[in-house]
Specification:
Length: 331
């Protein structure tokens, strides 16, 4: 497993660190780490989304377990037992306190030049403008993320702590990503997740709930250390736990693991995604959970939002923990 130690940073200061994973400079920041699956954006009205799968087919988010050919860690069984322990929480949420808003701009959507409200961290947006339709009616001072995909799909404006004043958006900080490229193709200075991947990577959308999940999931965990592995390009982990950002988990398909009993429809969707596509560790989090899209309501669940436990998954017996090899290690 190829992992790299993170450079320690002074509090609330944005620095540029060079990662050997990509061979280019990437932002490292100590802004508060938003949890995977716990990134609220509250809005009234219909959610506007671009679909279920983002990024190129060769991105590890889209390759599936077979295509990623993960290498199982030596301590996989120990980590699987940790996930299966009674003390280890596991869930997904889909309401205002547990999901990220993803919006699709049209050709007529107004655009705005946004200057971060926290200037000490630099400007991750550069010359890019933020498309925003005032009719989306997002609540001000939201402690979470809103992602707006440009009309042509060439970039996504990822906005942390969105605030809308008289119809005009502003952001505390954020990033520019490229949904027509890879999940780690982030413009210089941006910090969308602790692992350096886009906020759109691995998010469970309404299309996923309705038709099945056809991409890897992403998760946060309270047990990250200061190491990372591909496809992560950095980390916000600083604990001494056993997990690394970029680490990959997947469920076995054989024997009793193939089709465990007692799962509802939404849980079955998530479990099958873990069998077919796996999941990547992208953030420090208070609890273990998967990232979802705001107002993407799981089958059989309340549209007003909530949390669904997945403690009933056979974690200890069926989970594998490992890493994915970078096909271009010279990057």
């Amino acid at each position: 497993m190829r992992t790299l130690a993170r450079t320690a940073l002074p509090a609330a200061i944005l620095l540029l660190g060079v990662t050997a994973c990509l061979g280019t400079a990437h932002a490292q920041t100590t802004i508060p780490a938003a949890e995977a699956g716990v990134n609220p954006v509250t809005k009234a009205g219909a959610q506007i989304t671009a679909g279920s799968r983002y990024f190129v087919d060769s991105d590890p988010i889209n390759l599936g377990v077979t295509g990623n050919a993960p290498q199982q860690d030596e301590d996989s069984a120990t980590l699987a037992a940790m996930f299966g322990s009674a003390a280890y929480d596991a869930n997904f949420g889909w309401g205002p306190e547990s999901a990220a808003g993803i919006y699709q701009a049209s050709a007529g959507t107004p655009t705005y030049k946004v200057t971060p409200r926290q200037p000490d961290w630099g400007d991750p947006f550069g010359s890019y403008t933020m498309p925003w339709d005032p009719s989306w009616n997002v609540t001000d001072h939201v402690d979470g993320w809103a992602v707006v995909i440009s009309a042509d799909g060439s970039y996504a404006f990822e906005c942390w702590e969105l605030k809308v004043t008289n119809g005009t958006p502003s952001c505390q900080f954020g990033a520019i990503s490229h949904p027509d490229s890879t999940s780690w193709d982030i413009e210089e200075g941006g910090a969308p997740t602790g692992a350096g991947l886009s906020r759109m990577a691995g998010v469970i959308t309404q299309d996923d709930w309705d038709n099945g999940i056809d991409h890897a999931l992403v998760y946060g965990t309270p047990d990250n250390d200061n190491q990372w592995a591909y496809p992560a390009t950095r980390t916000d982990g600083d604990e001494s736990g056993p997990m690394h950002e970029g680490q990959y988990i997947w469920m076995d398909r054989s024997g009793a693991c193939a089709n465990p009993s007692g799962l509802n429809t939404a849980q079955q969707r998530v479990y099958k995604a873990l069998q077919d596509y796996g999941a990547f560790n992208v953030d420090n989090a208070e609890t273990f959970g998967f990232a979802t899209e705001l107002h993407a309501t799981p089958p059989g669940m309340s549209s007003s939002g909530g949390y669904e436990s997945i403690r009933n998954f056979p974690w200890a017996a069926c989970l594998n923990v490992g890493t994915v090899t970078d096909p271009d290690p010279a990057r």
